[in-house]
Amino acid sequence: MKTSFLRNVFVSSGSTVLAQMVPFIFSPIITRIYDPEVYGEYNTFLATVTVLVSISMFRFDFAIFTARKEGERIGLHGLCLLLILASATFSLLIISIVYLFAPGVPSIYWLLPVLLLMAANTQLFNQIFIVNNEFWANGKRKVMQSLTFNLSATGLGFLNANSLSLIIGQAMSHVIVTIYSFRLFAGKLKEARRVSKAELKALSRQFGEFPKKGVMSTALNAFGSQSAIFLIPILFGLGPAGLYGFTVKLLYLPIQFIGRSISDSLFQRLSENITGMKRLFKMTTLSLFGLGIIPFSVLYFFGVDLFNFFFGEKWAEAGAYASILSPFFLVRFVFSPLISFLTVLNKLSIELRFNAIFLTGQLVALVLPYLMGGTVIESLIYTSVFGALAYLYLGFLILRIINQAEK
Q: pTM, whole model, 2 decimals?
């Protein structure tokens, strides 16, 4: 089991290093094409999609990891696909109502249902590939998605450097990986479509704990992660929002790829065998800290100079944001993948409590300095300190639950 887990981590991390290299190569070009204000509008749109995707399947996509029978997993695939379609349709209805009463909303939001449909499928197939131990294929998907977005955003940016070009690039990246995923799982998808309504209802009752306890937690987590992207444009304007969004995108790369790779491997390992969790927790924590300490320390001490050199003078202030946020993202990089333990051990109430605390703290940390007449820099300092403390607390909670489970 240990060898399998380490192999999956190596395979997934190796492919995601390639996926990471793509944005690092293209970012100096993209930042010289797009202005921070444009990036701020794009990130606000993308944050909306991220929140909606997180709740679109009512957490049944995570139930796949706990299903022991192949028939149950196929049925859950079908259920998730139906929920994705329903969520996209419902979002179109909401957008239509919003435009009816608030026609001043940017027209890019008409694309929200399309991107929701594509991004949710990408997330669902990520879970399916993990359960089926297809880590090579999952890594290939990440590289394809990253390469498609950056090539599209660059090419479209030369034609018209607005937020629509970035959004279309994002949509194209999801379309490519969705087509690839459907082709690989065509046989099982045919089986999923044959699942009856009665079977779907039975599965929704059997795995009912996931929507009951997991949806609220997932929504809170998504809002907590995206709260600054929603609030900074309101409090400080689109320019700082764009600088913040770009900074967070780069800081998230280790979390999104390396951390996610380890999280995926943990899900697969724990779904097969939940013994030796304390040892697995320590090994994962120390490995992630060792991987993260150098790059995040470099950003802490040299963020402004690095951003100015690589991304241009108009993005130099984003380096100051990176310096402030790097301690928080180091701690998050170490502990966020370990939420897999809570999901597999069905401790969703603990996850819900943490996400509620995190969201509340992030909102207070952002708004309080603004109300006191402070700048965006002061808000980010508060955010970074609170975020680091919150994820240290999460790590303590997970270790305590593992100790209880192994007694």
A: 0.83
